[in-house]
């Protein structure tokens, strides 16, 4: 499906289609919107004013790079930056109870609107008192718009695209029934639920309304996620649509802020000119922070090149989040460009599949050489897992398919990431990086 296809805007009609009664006006045809129609100008929005419920405090700027140490103040606590953000797709960290993760230093947690929209639904979460009460977490939360998951159903993820995973692994359970995205229009995205096939329309307004019901501290406007390989004309149209959608999302948010901050998303794929165009427009609007989204490169080299070009153009007094990138090899370099927070499901997924993150690289506990390794899994690690169990025991748990194994490794990996971020903050304070 081409994102450059001109969407249709319904106009009022004065007679039913096909009516031929004398004296009645014939039905009017729907006009097509130019796919490159610009979004509303910044002059149509109020200027940004500081919020008493959301503030980005810069503690120190490195003398060696653009790295900085900061503190994001939210209604549910402080987020130290640079910081790691764990992903709890359905309002839960897989295999780990939230208090366990919090005990290992996790401050900000990411939840996905798409999945929570399908189940249990915004009404249930709102009736529980909001997402914080529903999942019993009194620390900061961030929710996305639902767009990432919806467009992944349409295009697949960038990771899958550039690594040809769809050919080697076959369709996911979400795609076994075919493309679940029915139509992309100026209104929004019409898609079918992977749970029961129900058709649902996700619009910039309905996405924000759902996130209002959830009540996260930081929310995200609806955007379009184009694939890595996309014709230039389609990429330009996609960017224009994302800008229009995010402007509509921002309008809806500003009508009822509810002590929530909204981050605008920078798009444009690997096209530097489009990325800079996106920065110029998005930073002209009264967003509380920003996020780097869309295709950020097929490998780490492209990722670094892109962010090195973009970050100097970003406002230094507002936090900048990197969407979907939070691996131990990428974060240290991205921090030097001035990026503040990073989310990814990689650390927790790696733990569930038997990999511990260590300073020496990934450690696969199922390896036979660890069968009699009666020692702490990672020397010097102070996490619950490494203080309590031996590497040999973890090896046994995974070989025996015991559910405790994934839980213990996930706890360790969350600790590893939060500890790594703490060390990076200290190096910045010392002007070492």
What can you see in these coordinates?
With 433 residues, this protein is α/β, with parallel strands linked by helices. Strands 8-7-6-16-15-14-13-12 form an 8-stranded parallel beta sheet. A 3-stranded antiparallel beta sheet has the order 3-4-5. Strands 9-10-11 form a 3-stranded antiparallel beta sheet. The chain has helices at residues 98-103, 113-118, 122-127, 131-135, 147-155, 158-163, 165-169, 204-214, 232-255, 272-282, 300-310, 331-336, 346-352, 384-388, 391-399, 404-429, and strands at residues 8-9, 31-32, 55-61, 68-74, 77-81, 83-87, 108-111, 141-143, 181-184, 189-192, 199-202, 218-219, 261-266, 289-292, 320-322, 341-344, 355-356, 363-364. It has 16 helices and 18 strands.
Task: Quickly list its features.
433 residues; alpha/beta; 3-stranded antiparallel sheet; 18 strands; 35% helix; disordered N terminus
